[in-house]
Amino acid sequence: MDVRRILTALLLTTAALFATVPAAAGAGPGGGGTTSASGRAIASAPETGAGPGFASVSESGTGPGFASVSESGTGPGFASVAESAAASESAAAARDTARPTAFTISGIDLHDAQIAKFGDTYYMYGSMYGCGFEWYVKPTPWCGFGVSTAPAPQGPWTLPKALFDPTTVDPWTDDSWQDTCGTSGQGCFNPRMIRRSGWGRDDGAFVLWFNSPRHYSAGGPHAYNAMGCASAEGPCGPPPVPGGFYRKPALSVCTGNGDFGIIESGTPGGHPAIVCTLPGSAQLNIEELDARGSDGTGVGVRRVAGLKKIEGPGGYWDPVQRLYVLTYADPACGYCTGTPIGYATAPSLYSGWAAPGNLGWNAPAFGRRIFNGNSCGGQPRTVTVLDGQAWQIIDLWLGIRNEAAAATHLVPLTYTPTPGVAGDGQLWRPPLRLDC
């Protein structure tokens, strides 16, 4: 009989089996069947170890034109490919299941916020708008900075209380903070609480940082301020506040008036750093804080990764990848209801910063460094680390001058290294993502 006819008959028979054999739950190579991730039944190999989908011509599996599955079931047949794909999908599903989920904090009048954990309590710090503050309306009431507490990041959160009275004196101008932050309409923003614990004086004291743009526009060295606080809930300011002080920080690298964040050091005992945007080109600089946490040391880096026209910086140390990861709004804008978010990384806090470049005629510089095009419909604010997990904080702005009703959204960040460089002709998948 013609060998070709035998082969044809065998192929037709096996193809029929491929279409009709039911899946056997839990069956592996060499017995029953297996099911792909889509639920479709895949015909199993016969007990002799012949590969599914294409019958082998001889018991040794060396038939012409068709690769066989070895007796161990590990040959290049369709079953092993399907099982590998299913295993990969299962592993990815397990990672996603373990990954925390994003959540939104609504109904709390705290914005451009920071969330921190001190002891067993979570604290949310932010600018308040409820008294009627309107950005760049002259004059406008300034509502101050507030703090809320909760037993978990998802809440329930207490009603905000003021960290200090907006009518108290601004020691740098001798006017009130209401005048500094409200009369010009420039506002005061970005309250950031740090604790001297495990670094510097290591005395557990709390220090509040914030920016007041009017200081800079009035000829000051920069817009930043530091206050000592009696506790994580305040009050903050100079004496008679217990443990209180006011300081216009001595800074030589962060000498602007833009948004800023605080990055914790990944080195045991290392000092935190301020990461700041500068006016004009809005370049990004980083400067180490001193042992008191109220001044800079002069150690730092300018023009981080060559970035320009960005804001809302925040960052964290990834102990698994042994990298600092920085995120930011790219480009800068005010009260935006959808802003791209980009990233940069470095092995050291003060050197080696890089962001993915781009190639091509008129190629946008941010083309490969952006990992989400609209930041979940909001604007990136900063990054916080809670219980070992990094979170991107996003302002879900309303796009109006008074943002009292705006919500705050938190999205988990996980850095997963991905191969590829601009010009390699391969797919590019950023190592960060926002699962909104």
Description:
There is one protein chain. This protein has 436 residues and is α+β, with helices and mostly antiparallel strands. It has two domains: 93 residues, no CATH class; 305 residues, Glycosyl hydrolase domain, family 43 (Tachylectin-2, Chain A, 5 Propeller), CATH 2.115.10. The chain has four helices and 22 strands. The strands form six sheets. The protein has a four-stranded antiparallel beta sheet, with no helix packed on it. Strand 14 and strand 15 form a beta hairpin. The longest helix is centred in the N-terminal third of the chain and has 21 residues. The protein is globular, with a radius of gyration of 29 Å. The relative contact order is 0.09. About 17% of the residues have low confidence.
Compose a concise summary of this entry.
With 436 residues, this protein is an alpha+beta fold. The protein is 12% helix and 27% strand.
